[in-house]
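Let us work through a complete example step by step.
Step 1: write down the sequence.
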Amino acid sequence: MSTASHRKRARRELATGLLFLGPNILGFLAFTFLPLLLSLALAFSNWDLRLHNMFRDEPLRFVGLDNFTRLFTAPDFWRYLGNTLFLMMALPFGIAGSLFAAVLLSQDLSAGSRRNRLLLFIGALMLAGVGGLALLGAGAAAMTMLLGGVVGLILVGGVAGGSTVYRTLFYMPHFTAGVATFILWKKLYSPYSGPINVFLTPVLDGVGQAVNAVPAPIVQAGLWIALLLLIALLGFGVSRLCAWWHEGEVGVGGLIIGMLFLLLPVLSGFSWLSVKAAGIVLLCGAAVAIAVPLIRLLAADHSFNAPAGEGLGSALIFSVLLMVGQFVLWGLSAVMHNLPAMVGDGGLEPRTG
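Step 2: predict the structure and record it as tokens.
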């Protein structure tokens, strides 16, 4: 390859690289480098937002080191600088602490012996004594000794028991988080002061008053409405599955499995019904909802022979969604049927479970 072609290729690669890096470079120049240069230039001028703005036309003058002299002679400057440095100390300490913790977790530093166990026991006694002093009001000194004793006890424990001690201590927050979640949800569902039950109390009172104001047979008529909707969902699901099978989008396996899922709420919910008339209506309606699409399917010409597993996933998802809707209607029908007895004279009350 000649020198000229090599240089041309190098320039082309450089242009391509700069094209990809261009947005990042422009963002750095616009939002980091140029503001830094501007702030550095303004540091040697008399710029003030109260004097230099669109409403006032004050001239911008060069003042040299006057701004820095005023800054270093301000009484609060060194205190603010110390606070900033103290805050930035978290970076090196955090990195060093993370590295130290990684070494403790990955390296086996155990040197178990009777002496180490004796030191561990003595350290535990001393830690308990310092904790007692802190509880009795010994002040910051006892608290410092307590924290130092905890760290020392952990290190000695690791030397005596190996890295398992450190790994156990690091995994402990997973258990404590579960305990905190349990306490939180217990407080949320408190029957007297929990926010959930406090919010539900006026809502349930309103529902109870509305139910008491309406005759019980009218409220219980919701059972029949829910059953009719359930039968309608069943018929819709069966008819769609039959249509998909007729069009070759679903095989016989998807048709059978989908219909089984659609029939599951009817078969399981029939045992829940305590009203015999409702059970008869359910069985008759389900028979009609299944028989009509099947008769139409058998009477039509089926010219598509799809494999048995064709469209199984789609049929399964469709049937499961309709099954969930049927179970929701079962729950609504049971609530409407038992609501007058649930309200009674005392009204509805929130429960903890």
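Step 3: interpret the result. Residues 3-42 form the longest helix (40 residues).
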